[in-house]
Design goal:
Structural class: alpha/beta
CATH superfamily of the largest domain: Vaccinia Virus protein VP39
Order of helices and strands: HEEEEHEHHH
Oligomer: single chain
Strand order of the largest sheet: 3-2-1-4-5
Helix content: 25-40%
CATH topology of the largest domain: Rossmann fold
Number of strands: 5
């Protein structure tokens, strides 16, 4: 729908006039003031709803900072991660920074091995109050390591 939306095209046109952009990829509701907030779905605070597996609508060297927290693990590693990283490198200014944050698998494995609910709570999980679709600590590990690829 973005391709045919005049509002979307105008927003891109305005962004292309700016340099030193700061991108926040995959906001998951955590938008940043003064940043171009990008998510797969349009929601309050999101500047652009985009599929980051496709070429991004920014000029080469246009961005001074790119922040990607807990988004890379949601795309297919074999087919999509390398092209995405190439695209981020293309739009990043020389001397700019790219910060990628992904879940720390070791912490989840250590929590599993500890059999201690307090260690799970530190990771945002409570074994005594599990979601309806997660049944066991092993199921948590499976969920963490298979989140959409």
């Amino acid at each position: 729908m973005n391709a045919i939306s005049p509002t979307y095209r105008n927003r891109i046109r305005e962004l292309l006039k700016k340099n030193h952009l700061s991108l926040n990829l995959g906001t998951a509701g955590d938008t940043k003031v003064g940043w171009v907030n990008i998510d797969a779905f349009s929601q309050p605070g999101v500047t652009l709803a985009l599929d980051i597996r496709k070429p991004l609508p920014f000029a080469t060297n246009q961005c001074k900072r790119i922040f990607a927290e807990h988004i890379i693990e949601h795309i297919d590693f074999r087919d999509n991660v390398e092209p995405l990283l190439r695209e981020l490198y293309r739009i990043l200014q020389p001397g700019g920074w790219l910060r990628i944050i992904v879940p720390d698998g070791r912490r989840y494995i250590e929590a599993y091995l500890s059999e201690n609910n307090e260690n799970w709570k530190l990771l945002g999980w409570d074994l005594e109050n599990m979601p309806d679709d997660i049944y066991t600590p092993m199921h948590i590990l499976n969920h963490i390591f298979h989140q959409d690829g």
